[in-house]
Design a protein that fits this description.
This protein is an all-alpha fold. It is built from eleven helices and three strands. It has helices at residues 3-10, 41-71, 78-106, 116-149, 154-157, 160-186, 203-207, 215-249, 253-281, 290-314, 317-328; strands spanning 31-33, 112-114, 195-196. Strands 2-1-3 form a three-stranded mixed sheet. It starts with a helix and ends in a 13-residue tail after the last helix.
């Protein structure tokens, strides 16, 4: 035993230090996603039958919005550019998580095994897409702020080039954070086996299996929450508070109603997204229950993405009109560049 190992063995383990000896620290050959494999088979079958239609409806709704935003010239404005991008992110997010979760309901008890590289890829894609969505919601709030509070300068400010730059920045920002978090977690040794008590390779569920001092990884996770949750949410609330002040102070009743409906839709989606993300990840490992996290994941994986297209289409006349034109094959109309609906 080296001098460093001897000194390390004499130190008491901290709150995030493993009590397992270093001889048991290994890199697992596979991770086993437990999911709900310990639940009765009949209940798992009912969950599969209930969640499969939600999955298909989520894909259909978001693909519909994406298709309308791309094909209908009346929706070729910055607001619908970002809405189409948000739907594309939701489609990718759903495809990354939901199929494996649904398959887990049909497998025999014991969960299903995945290679470490597959687990890392799933975690990285989840963080990248979720992070991109957080930043994209902030970009949408900025767009509405400029459209309503700076209408005279809006066409010159929110150009097509700026829209693409904002979208690229959101994707790059989410991807960089995902790469950093995933690398930080998978560089740790593991001493508690590879059984992941979750429906996918979520960050906390994998991090609790790690050995050694996890303080750095927890700090990185909390810092990412600060960057992806607190700062964009502050920008969103600041932008929409200014937008609401302008809406209530100027314009006619019809214009105020249309603008308010748009802001209400965007704000509802932002509150849903950030409340779920904050409840899941802005907490230390010592204060969380993986069983509770697993149950909450059913909401943000299956229900929240389904609500987004419903919120945008039910309260948005432009999207409803585009859908009617697509069904009836009529020539689409035009909307103003600074349309606030």
């Amino acid at each position: 035993m080296t001098l460093l190992s001897s000194l390390h063995a004499c130190l008491p383990p901290g709150p995030n230090m493993s009590h397992w000896p270093e001889s048991n620290w290994t890199a697992p050959q596979e991770f086993v996603i437990l999911g709900f494999s310990r639940w009765p088979q009949g209940l798992r079958g009912l969950l599969f039958a209930f969640l499969l239609p939600l999955y298909l409806a989520t894909l259909a709704g978001n693909l519909l919005i994406l298709g309308l935003a791309v094909t209908d010239p009346a929706l070729h404005t910055p607001m619908y550019f970002f809405l189409g991008a948000l739907s594309a992110v939701e489609v990718a997010y759903t495809l990354v998580l939901t199929p494996r979760m649904l398959a887990g309901f049909l497998l025999p008890p014991g969960g299903h095994a995945v290679a470490p590289s597959t687990c890392a890829a799933q975690m990285g894609l989840f963080v990248a897409l979720g992070g991109s969505e957080c930043l994209l919601l902030a970009a949408m709030a900025l767009d509405r702020y400029l459209a309503i509070c700076r209408p005279l300068y809006y066409p010159q400010l929110m150009t097509t080039g700026l829209c693409w730059c904002l979208l690229a920045s959101c994707c790059v920002g989410g991807s960089v954070l995902a790469l950093g978090l995933t690398t930080a977690i998978f560089r740790l040794p593991f001493c508690r086996g590879g059984s992941v008590n979750h429906v996918f390779c979520d960050l906390p569920a994998v991090l609790v299996l790690a050995c050694g001092n996890r303080d750095l990884q927890e700090r990185v996770l909390l810092a990412a929450c600060l960057v992806l949750l607190v700062l964009p949410l502050a920008l969103i609330l600041l932008s929409y508070s200014r937008v609401l002040a302008v809406i209530l102070g100027v314009g006619g009743a019809a214009g105020r109603r249309k603008a308010f409906n748009t802001v209400a839709s965007h704000l509802t989606v932002a509150v849903l997204h950030y409340s779920c993300a904050t409840a899941m990840y802005a907490r230390p490992l010592s204060s969380r229950s993986l069983e509770e996290d697993k149950l909450v994941s059913l909401i943000y994986i299956n229900l929240t993405p389904l609500l987004y297209p419903a919120i945008y289409t039910l309260r948005n006349r432009d999207v409803q009109g585009a859908l009617q034109r697509a069904v009836s094959h009529r020539t689409p109309g035009t909307v103003r560049q600074a349309d606030v609906t």
